[in-house]
Amino acid sequence: MTRRGVPGRPDVPDTEERYVEEALAVVDDSGGRGRQEVRPGHRSEGRRVLEQHDLDVEEALALVRGLGSHAARHSGAEDPVHVRQGGGDTSRTRSGHSATSWPEARAAAERAARSVPRREPVAVPLDDALGLVLAAPLTALTDLPAFDTSAMDGWAVAGPGPWAVREEDILAGHAEAAPLGDGEAARIATGARVPPDTTAVLRSEHGRTDDKGRLHATAPAPGPGRTGRTASTVAHGQDIRPRGQECHAGDQLLPPGTRVTPAVLGLAAAAGYDTLRALPRPRVDVLVLGDELLTQGLPEDGLIRDALGPMLPPWLRALGADVVSVRRLGDDAEALHQAVASSQADLIVTTGGTAAGPVDHVHPTLRRIDAALLVDGVKVRPGHPMLLARTREDQYLVGLPGNPLAAVSGLLTLAEPLLRVLAGRAAPEPYVLPLQDSVQGHPHDTRLVPVVVRGERAVPLRYHGPAMLRGIAAADGLAVVPPGGARLGEDVELLDLPWAVAG
Ligand SMILES: Nc1nc2c(c(=O)[nH]1)N[C@H]1C(S)=C(S)[C@@H](COP(=O)(O)OP(=O)(O)OC[C@H]3O[C@@H](n4cnc5c(N)ncnc54)[C@H](O)[C@@H]3O)O[C@H]1N2
Ligand code: MOO
């Protein structure tokens, strides 16, 4: 296996040390072999793998057992028992924890959004409409151009030349000039209305006036090496943009469902719109949990900076959301209950508190309000404790794990499909790229790995541990690495980052 991006980690956290121990212990027990049969070097191999790849116990197990990532994929040795739950593809691991497969979790989030009663379209001023989805066709309110227009700076002319040139110039933005008589010309600017009876516009570089002030059409002298200009003629209609050339009033310019881009805003304005009928942005309340979080300064005394408060709101906006509030609630179960119970948002996003620690209040809060847990853990790394719950008929809660890259994983797995459907946006075309390096897989779970795209290849990045943002901050997207891993050159699906797409 090609090893890339092995960060020079100074030490391995204690928990990972324990994972190696556990992994080795299970190898001893489940393999029916005595501890003395574990090959020398297994322990250091397991630790090395953990150090280099931020793997967990199951991956370490697969490796110390001598199962390569692809062997693990097919071994079935650690396959969880599959159970069907609510039509979803879930599995129950040895610990009894029920987790949904990664593709099914995304599908469940889409289904959840589809089950919400249709949200009424709203009229949105152009300035606020970027990123929304049109709820009605964009129909031209005017002909475009709205009048016959000069395409060039030059002269409006009537009939064949030479022409007598009128004194007044015709500029853009003025009322229609008097009709031209046959043999008459008037200086005209690009975008100005051509006067009635104009037969063509002569570009300024294609005409010259003689000493009597008469205008002649000229063209470059023909033949190689010839300089100067010769007399010429002007084709009928030349350099006039006729009224209605682009569209007529009533023409459908764009269908409903079109995403409002800067170009759509420009077209809408040109076609006469001040507001657009669009689906409203789904409203989101963000609740950041954790007593250990600082909002400024350096980490100290066991406290760390809140990385999710600054990261999530703009990310959610890029996914189409209207972030109504961002609140830091600490580890206060009552405050969390209050915030969830009183939220008027379409979606509540919590961060942290999804696991089973003493101050992990998300599950108890959901039980307290009798929410329906649709996804409770996903077979994805990082981020497997993520969850999706229906809190009311028309309100959902996505619980993102506290580890920052795990939170990104939850955002893309559950919040992105949900917001996309609520916002009426189309699913992105799936696309794949070959990997520049092989990527170690998890035996049973999908992995989301930050990558940069170089040429036509996805280059996996270092620093992809669940608590790290260094990789994703430099990434163009996330590679979806199937259970068991992916080899060098193998095609993997890529998830775009919303700003990478928006440019
Ligand atoms: N017994 C188990 N413990 C844990 C499991 C498990 O399966 N069993 N899963 C681990 C995994 S994987 C993850 S991910 C985390 C998820 O934990 P929570 O969602 O409960 O999150 P916290 O415990 O509150 O925080 C985890 C970690 O992240 C840091 N954090 C939290 N919020 C922020 C923030 N806004 N900005 C930066 N960092 C944040 C927090 O300090 C912790 O270090 O659970 C594992 N445990
Ligand atoms: O592995 Mo957790 O899911 O750290 O992200």
UniProtKB/TrEMBL annotation:
Coiled-coil residue windows: none
Give the source's domain of life in one word.
Bacteria
The coenzyme or cofactor needed here is: Mg(2+)
Region of interest (Disordered), residue spans: 28-49, 71-118, 204-232
Which pathway is this protein assigned to? Cofactor biosynthesis; molybdopterin biosynthesis
Q: Which EC numbers characterise this protein's activity in its record?
A: 2.10.1.1
Q: Which Gene3D superfamilies match?
A: MoaB/Mog-like domain, MoeA, C-terminal, domain IV, Molybdopterin biosynthesis moea protein, domain 2, Molybdopterin biosynthesis moea protein, domain 3
Per the entry, what this protein does is: Catalyzes the insertion of molybdate into adenylated molybdopterin with the concomitant release of AMP.
Name of the protein in question: Molybdopterin molybdenumtransferase
